[in-house]
Design brief:
Helices cover 28% and strands 22% of the residues. It is α/β, with parallel strands linked by helices and 184 residues long. Helix 3 packs parallel to helix 4. This is Cysteine hydrolase.
Length: 184
């Protein structure tokens, strides 16, 4: 494994995210782009980390043992790929992820997955604060529509764009799939 190449961090790509109950979303091609990046990382023998959200609420779609908590088939980890379980949005909180990366001298991350406005943003903020060279792939992440603090309903595209703006330049560099594929 190349320690100088960034690790691919795939956040919460679980079956529950494919259900209509999650709500209207953006980036309908995000899964295709994530799969393309995953294929490239595997082909180049680079580090891949899969993050799985496991809820602490028994009624949640992400409750351990429920079908929604399972990884999406086309993005499921291989036996040698690292899996991080979390029960809060930030993949670094109480998970051992930072230590796992540091032990392997991994200094850069490419973050993809869901949702841009929650787990992706929380994880990217921590990664940037911890000193990792952090990249978030705009077309390999997605989110859902949401009301803002004033009660105004925002489209998933608006929520996504704001989350990327929150991260850009301060915590992470925002790339698209083509640019991410060219990272060394």
């Amino acid at each position: 494994m190349s320690r100088h190449a960034p690790a691919l961090l795939i956040v919460d790509m679980q079956k529950a995210m494919q259900q209509v109950a999650a709500g209207p979303r953006n980036n309908p091609l995000a899964e295709r782009n994530i799969a393309e990046l995953l294929h490239a990382w595997r082909g180049a023998d680079r580090w891949v980390v899969h993050v799985r959200h496991l809820s602490r609420s028994p009624g949640s779609l992400f409750w351990p043992g429920k079908p929604g908590a399972e990884f999406q088939d086309e993005l499921a980890p291989l036996a040698h790929e690292h899996v991080v379980d979390k029960n809060v949005p930030d993949a670094f909180t109480h998970s051992g992820l930072e230590r796992w990366l540091r032990v392997r001298d991994i200094e850069a991350l490419v973050i993809v997955g869901v949702s841009t406005s929650n787990s992706v943003e929380a994880t990217a903020r921590s990664a940037g604060n911890l000193g990792f060279h952090t990249h978030v792939v705009s077309d390999a992440t997605f989110t859902f529509e949401k009301a803002d603090y004033s009660g105004v309903r925002r489209t998933a595209d608006e929520v996504h764009a704001m989350s990327l703006a929150n991260l850009d330049g301060e915590y992470a560099q925002i790339l698209d799939t083509r640019q991410a594929l060219n990272l060394g």
